[in-house]
Amino acid sequence: MGEVFHGNFTQQEPLPEASLAAAEAVLRHGRLHRYNTAEGEIAETALLEEEFAASTGAAFCLAVASGGYALGCALRACGVVPGDRVLTNAFTLAPVPGAIAGIGAVPVFVGVTDGLTIDFDDLEAKLAQARVLLLSHMRGHICDMGRLMRLCDRAGVTVIEDCAHTMGAAWDGRPSGRWGRMGCFSTQTYKHLNSGEGGLLISDDADAMARAVLLSGSYMLYGRHRAAPPEEAFAQLRYEVPNISGRMDNLRAAILRPQLKALKRQAGRWNDRYRKVAEGLADVPGLTLPARPEAEQFVASSFQFLLLDWTNDAVAAVVADCAARGVELKWFGAAEPVGFTSRYDSWRYADADPLPGSDRVLAGLLDMRLPLTFSLDDCSLIGRIIRDVVTDVRGRA
Ligand SMILES: *Cc1c(COP(=O)(O)O)cnc(C)c1O
Question: Which atom of ligand 1 is nearest to the CA of 93?
Fold first, then answer.
């Protein structure tokens, strides 16, 4: 059978010592709620918001309970109401169309290219159908953001970015999440910062962010934020915007702040691992690596490759043989949703018009996590195993 890998694809690194110490301090004083502060104290949550805003260059930041909450909150803050159609990527994960459906709006799926980014032709054809695009930078692949913003601006379509996989990434030097009206991030365990659950929302738009702060459940205590819009922005909205509680707490913020300081270094380590696997898979007949344009400064916490135009049986054989050798691949072409790999046509609450080009890409798309607990040697081994299996299955076909 050849070499076998014994690592665990879902094991993240332990949190840094500084996070443990910060968590202990919060637990000892007991003020976990973000608005429960002692005289003169600044809440960990408010400090995290200030630091995350500074790290992205955004004027405002709000910490919330999850990435999915951030998406729903951003949609509401940008004026989406029940019945509205919202454009979004066909290649994404369930919380994205779920956030749209969650506020009674209707997802309209836009196709994916073999570069794993949004299909601009399909987008142009659909722009007139909606006032908002919830753009998912799925698996960290970033489209040409300049072109996207020109298209959407011209059509009067507001862009909200789902940056669950692009925290710390950029297009053409401008951070992901800073192109659209709002950027939404997740700090769930499998993303780039780990607080178990959590989300961050950034924006330069005072009106949208004031709405988001009120929506998140600020009990009129928005004056205690450090990265929120000035009081005037709330003057009228405070009477109009409902409280849909989804705040972050001080414990999560406390463990995130030291991780945020290390984000750049961690991003470098992820990319080192990505490059090792990519080296191993260069020039494997039948296997395509998605293009990574020069302008895309990615953070590769996962790895994708394509077996374009292979039969379903052959792709399934690759998945099975890799699994037998310890390499866990997720297949976006499977007929039934398995784990996190659901397809746009498996979400039956939303009508999905056929997207043949996207079906071809998804049918051949394999995906794998790259946790930082893997060494560079592990990544070389994973590359060799995939290369062997793909070569072998192709030879048998
Ligand atoms: C994880 C994820 C989210 C939402 O994050 P949660 O914090 O789990 O709610 C949104 N979009 C994508 C693409 C994700 O992978």
Answer: 13
